[in-house]
Design brief:
Number of helices: 9
Structural class: alpha/beta
Helix content: 25-40%
Number of domains: 1
Oligomer: single chain
CATH superfamily: Zn peptidases
Order of helices and strands: HHHEEEHEHEEHHEHEH
Strand order of the largest sheet: 1-2-4-3-5-8
CATH class: Alpha Beta
CATH architecture: 3-Layer(aba) Sandwich
Bound molecules: zinc ion
Strand content: 15-25%
Distance between the termini: 32 Å
Low-confidence stretches: 5-35
Length: 330
């Protein structure tokens, strides 16, 4: 994921919404808060799935760790989903390297028209280019939070959906080659498209022709301690209703300390090609911080993005919110 603001998003339309503040609204909110019940989501299993991915080593395309982790993800999802499709493709990185890549798509009720898309990236960054020690800048990272956390949550959601099948169709897409963007010291203004290569490929070559979903939720960096999920600018541009709904449910479930109402700048992440190429309103649940120079959690793109950064309470909050959305869709 890259913090550069996509050019098209600079022209975001500002919509002024009237302030509604009557008593009937307040009562309604209170009723929702007591009526909402947390779904079953086993955080120990989600944590295990994060740990397992990290145990293979950095999942950098063309590496053996990458191949081994792909096998694990595919075999695990085959246990839970109705169908698993693997998109094998080769794609050129910013440096000319040919990345042998795989998007992994697990579907529940694949023939159902009404669908929800859940996504995360499963590759990890080849460069610790934000490491405090510059001699580490070309080393690959564990990506426990940046990558594996979102995938771990989605694997546990898949397991839960195999126990209690969803009423709607669900597609879990694990995108490859998200984090192979040009390293900081080589970056040029034209490098925006060097990120999110797997999502770009899928958006132009969907796994089923004319693929549609009602909406999508992308998870990225969803496992660090004291995470703060703000309303990301591109999500607010393309899918403000989905952001509003997810944040309201998160707060009603008691996770308002994580899901904050503050709006932050637009990011380049896998939700951009889904929104722009497939016109599926898709939001990004991503950890933004006001306390760091990068605007991300402190170990972003460093060698410290390892299992020590992963916090079960954060995984649990995000997992429950996303599973709640899926289970209460009708
Ligand atoms: Zn990243």
């Amino acid at each position: 994921m890259n913090k550069t603001v996509k050019k098209i998003l600079i022209t975001l339309t500002v919509v002024i919404v009237g302030c509604v503040n009557d008593e009937s609204k307040k009562t309604e909110t209170l009723v929702v808060q007591t009526a909402i019940q947390s779904p079953d989501f086993d955080v120990d299993t989600a944590y295990y799935f994060v740990e397992k991915q990290v145990s293979f080593g950095p999942r950098v395309p063309n590496s053996s760790s990458h191949r081994q982790c792909a096998d694990f993800l595919i075999n695990t999802l085959k246990n839970y989903a109705d169908t698993v499709i693997v998109q094998n493709f080769e794609i050129r990185a910013y440096n000319g390297a040919n990345l042998r890549s795989k998007n992994i798509i697990a579907s529940f009720k694949p023939n159902m028209q009404k669908r929800i898309l859940l996504a995360a990236h499963w590759d990890s960054r080849p460069y610790a280019d934000h490491d405090p020690d510059p001699t580490n800048s070309r080393k690959p990272i564990d990506g426990a939070n940046d990558g594996a956390s979102g995938v771990g949550i989605l694997l546990e959601i898949a397991r839960q959906l195999s126990i209690n099948e969803p009423v709607v169709g669900v597609d879990i897409i694990l995108f490859d080659a998200e984090d192979y963007g040009a390293p900081e010291e080589e970056r040029r203004a034209s490098d925006e498209n060097t990120w999110c290569l797997g999502a770009q490929f899928w958006a132009t070559h969907p796994h089923t022709p004319n693929y549609r979903a009602k909406y999508g939720i992308l998870l990225d960096m969803v496992g660090a301690k004291n995470a703060t999920f703000t309303k990301e600018g591109a999500s607010m541009h393309f899918a403000p209703d989905i952001v509003g709904n997810v944040w309201a449910k998160a707060q009603a479930l008691g996770f308002g300390n994580y899901f904050q109402n503050q709006e932050t700048s637009a990011l380049i992440d896998d939700h951009i090609p889904i929104n722009t190429h497939r016109n599926i309103p898709t939001i990004d649940i991503i950890d933004r911080r006001t306390t760091t120079v990068s605007g991300f959690y402190e170990h972003w793109h460093t060698l410290q993005d390892n299992m020590e950064t992963i916090d079960k309470q954060t995984l649990s909050a995000v997992g429950k919110v996303v599973l709640y959305m899926v289970k209460n869709e009708n």
